[in-house]
Amino acid sequence: MTGQDLIKIKKQYVDRVKSEAKSGFVTVDVHMGTCGIAAGSQKIFDAIEKEMEKLEAKNIKIRSTGCAGFCSMEPMITVHVPGKPSVKYGKLDAKKALEIFYSHVLGGHVKADYAMSQGLEKPQHRLTGK
Amino acid sequence: MNKDLKKIFTEEQLQKTDAIIEQHKEIKGSLLIVLEKIQDVCGYLPLSLQRYIAGKMMLPPSQVYGVVTFYSYFSTTPKGKNVVKVCTGTACYMKGSGQILKKTREYLGIKEGEVTPDGEYSVEEVLCPGVCGLAPLVIIGEEAFGLVDPDKPEDIFKQYKENFHDRSGSDKN
Amino acid sequence: MKALYQLSLADKVELVETDCLISCQEGPSIMLLPSGRVAQVNPGHNFTAWLIANIAALYHSPHRPSISLRGDAEIPPIEQMGFFSKQELVVMRNRGHIDAENIEEYIAHDGYMALYKVLTALEPEDVIKEIKSSGLRGRGGAGFPTGLKWEETRGYKTNPKYVICNGDEGDPGAFMDRSLMESDPHAIIEGMAICGYAIGAPQGYIYVRAEYPLAVKMLQTAIDNAVKKNLLGRNIMKSGFNFNIGIYPGAGAFVCGESTALMFSIEGKRGMPRIKPPRSAEAGLWEKPTCLNNVETFANIPQIIRRGADWFKSFGTPESTGTKVFSMSGAVRNVGLVEVPMGITVRSLIFDIGGGIKGNAKFKAVQLGGPSGGCLTEEHLDIPITFDSLQNVGSMMGSGGVVVMDDTNCMVDVARFFTQFSVDESCGKCVPCRTGLSVILSILEKIIMGNGVPEDLHELETLALHIQKTSHCGLGQAAPNPVLSTLRYFRHEYEAHIYDKRCPALVCTDLIHFEINADNCKKCGLCAKVCPAGAISWQKKEMPVIDKIICTKCKSCIRACKFEAIY
């Protein structure tokens, strides 16, 4: 590993994310810190994953990321649709998460009732540029 | 000495204990890690076991005893199969964890340091596990329950048993 | 389901899975909201074809199937949300944003670039100079300048040296280090490696509480991944620099947050602080020069190196640069982790970011710095939060726990709680802390039981000051702070307990009479209904009567009464 390799890893990663975005990849981040898990985010993760398997969904990625910091809104997920602002949802359960999955992730229609905010915190940004 | 231990622990537990000690004996300062691992295997660290560990690790028993009694993680008495941990950190305390502790013990009919007659539950206080957003918090086994109603902590036991059935059901799959 | 998305109507129609709407034998059915019309599908037909044929007609029918109660436009942009807008993410820049178990994501977000820069372009002295110039001070509570500590450790010639990351976050009410370790472990690892290079240490330890199993797992995964990529281990990035990190799970002792106690604990001994000097920079772990910093401090390092000391200094005040992460909990509306520039006021923290007090209760006090800190009141809300400003008013920033209290919290009880904590966690080595705190606790308990006498207040004060002056380590010296600060700002509550035998916040059960105030009582009988012990008898249009023998003092009636008639 050298500095060149670091830059290469970064570039490869960004390229991959970009090409994924081009093909309409939707990313679902489930915020799974200790607090999120205690609030039920594991159940949400499992529910969405199961649904994805059932539908054999190919252009959807689910990730477990750390706590987003807003404990009183746990459990939370963030949905990234390419070209659109990311949307954070809060105070979910497995049922609500599946509603979001069908409406927003599959359908591209933001489930506004459960949405908390749109956009990302500065300085966070999507590697796709938008 | 080994005879006493065999009365309390299974052959397997003792074998694992030996393996842990063997693995760490040479590393200096490994006593805490050894004790943590052995407690995970044996459940608790009674005096006889402490003496055994001290002998194997070539340490004075007083040092082992000193360490075991210093850290709250170690227990010298048996615990229930499911340890109920009530957080008594600041945020939880402000939201009534004192009452949860009292009511939970009443519900299970045990006092501090006791285990229910069927060996299922024991209750202990725990320092803040850092889930203050969900205060007051109770952890049963590995499962955390947030926003517990201080008036009705018994509800979470019902929930725990239900989840437990789910878990053991899915384990079989 | 898929059928709907083949139609251009996908964004106008929303599908919700429901339980069986009508008789199942009649096949799949859908209900259109808000009309509630149920449309059935003939099982003989293809559902998709049916949808395509019918949905447009349904949509254009007078009962438009719009379900969401608010539109996309009503979702606030994140920068307009009070909770997020005032925050400045430096340390927590990757929170909830990257998958901590995937090292490539960290690298893609400029991870390990700082380590690369350090190893290829900077001498150890340059690194220390940069950190010194950034003004970074230890985030664990004491606020010692990090650069100075590194320089001192580098100055000693004994080898080997050690780097220790203190992840023994013991303050109840503080959870920022846990969150950092879980969500961005590589930032901590990178910071430690840079420190190792700067002071000349080949080995680092992360001491993590055993109560944080997920943090341990995340850190271990991160270390393994970094070793695989040669970002840790031997000859890192072909620079000739070797650095390894081991995780050391703590066994639950608050005092192990103290540096010398922590080192004893790593050595496998009882974690009892020792007398300084020698400072741990000279003789720390295994009597070797050791540099110990907090989790948050290390997580700041890569950013300072990558973006420069001047960038870092643009946050905060001249004496306290950068940002600080606080974990806010208690009676505030928005509970969570917040990272703000130093110098922000307490008011802004609680009211702008925290969203104010939950429910209808009134702000009463805020406790900063955990069991070592003090309570502040309304009048202190405009104090800017820096290392020094809070100490002047008897509190401290501590590691960053912020517990907000409303008028349902009794300050004597709060003082008792923290003292109890310190008594439990005292290592027992020195007398003032071991015995003095127990005496304070027994006096507080006496007051709470209603047996307090006026002299108690003076006694509490004298004892607390003595403990502060004569205790051996920081734990003992700071342990009386909660008592002293509540005595200073909430003396009237102590006096109410002692003179009037009354607890104004209705917390101390021994001082609640469980009687009914005839003036306030509306004779509604709600208290009788909620009493779990059946101790309240009530006839219509009569005042309820509480049987004090049956009463278990559970306070259900007090909580239920809307007219504050039970006292």
Give the SSE layout.
The complex is a heterotrimer of chains A (130), B (173) and C (567).
Chain A (H helix, E strand, L loop, with lengths): L2 H20 L3 E6 L2 H6 L1 H15 L4 E6 L11 E4 L6 E3 L4 H13 L8 E4 L12
Parallel strand pairs in A: 1-2
Antiparallel strand pairs in A: 1-3, 3-4, 4-5
Chain B lengths: L1 H7 L2 H14 L6 H12 L4 H11 L3 H10 L11 E6 L2 H5 L2 H12 L12 E6 L11 E3 L2 E3 L8 H19 L1
Parallel strand pairs in B: 1-2
Antiparallel strand pairs in B: 1-3, 3-4
Chain C lengths: L1 H5 L22 E4 L4 E4 L6 H14 L21 H4 L17 H6 L4 H9 L2 H11 L11 H10 L6 E6 L8 H8 L1 H15 L3 E7 L3 H16 L15 E7 L8 H8 L23 E5 H13 L1 H5 L9 E8 L5 E6 L4 H8 L9 E6 L5 E3 L10 H6 L8 E6 L4 H15 L5 H19 L5 H16 L3 H5 L2 H9 L1 H8 L27 H5 L5 E2 L7 E2 L9 H5 L7
Parallel strand pairs in C: 3-4, 3-6, 4-5, 7-11
Antiparallel strand pairs in C: 1-2, 7-8, 9-10, 9-11, 12-13
Structure write-up:
The complex is a heterotrimer of chains A (130), B (173) and C (567). Chain A has helices spanning 3-22, 34-39, 41-55, 94-106, and strands at residues 26-31, 60-65, 77-80, 87-89, 115-118. Chain A has 4 helices and 5 strands. Chain A has one domain (24-118): Glutaredoxin. In chain A, strand 3 (77-80) and strand 4 (87-89) form a beta hairpin. The mean pLDDT of chain A is 87. Chain B is an alpha+beta fold and 173 residues long. Chain B has 2 domains: 2-70; 82-172, Glutaredoxin (3-Layer(aba) Sandwich), CATH 3.40.30.10. Chain B has helices at 2-8, 11-24, 31-42, 47-57, 61-70, 90-94, 97-108, 154-172, and strands at 82-87, 121-126, 138-140, 143-145. In chain B, strands 2-1-3-4 form a 4-stranded mixed beta sheet, with helices on one face. In chain B, helix 2 (11-24) packs antiparallel against helix 3 and helix 4 (47-57) packs across helix 5. The radius of gyration of chain B is 18 Å and the shape is elongated. With 567 residues, chain C is α/β, with parallel strands linked by helices. Chain C folds into 5 domains: 2-60, no CATH class; 103-313, NADH-ubiquinone oxidoreductase 51kDa subunit (Rossmann fold, 3-Layer(aba) Sandwich), CATH 3.40.50.11540; 323-406, Ubiquitin-like (UB roll) (Roll); 411-498, NADH-ubiquinone oxidoreductase 51kDa subunit, iron-sulphur binding domain (de novo design (two linked rop proteins)), CATH 1.20.1440; 513-567, Alpha-Beta Plaits, CATH 3.30.70.20. Chain C is built from 23 helices and 13 strands. Chain C has helices at residues 2-6, 47-60, 82-85, 103-108, 113-121, 124-134, 146-155, 176-183, 185-199, 213-228, 259-266, 295-307, 309-313, 346-353, 387-392, 411-425, 431-449, 455-470, 474-478, 481-489, 491-498, 526-530, 556-560, and strands spanning 29-32, 37-40, 162-167, 203-209, 244-250, 290-294, 323-330, 336-341, 363-368, 374-376, 401-406, 536-537, 545-546. At the A-C interface, helix 1, helix 2, strand 2, helix 4 and strand 5 of A face helix 4, helix 5, helix 8 and strand 8 of C.
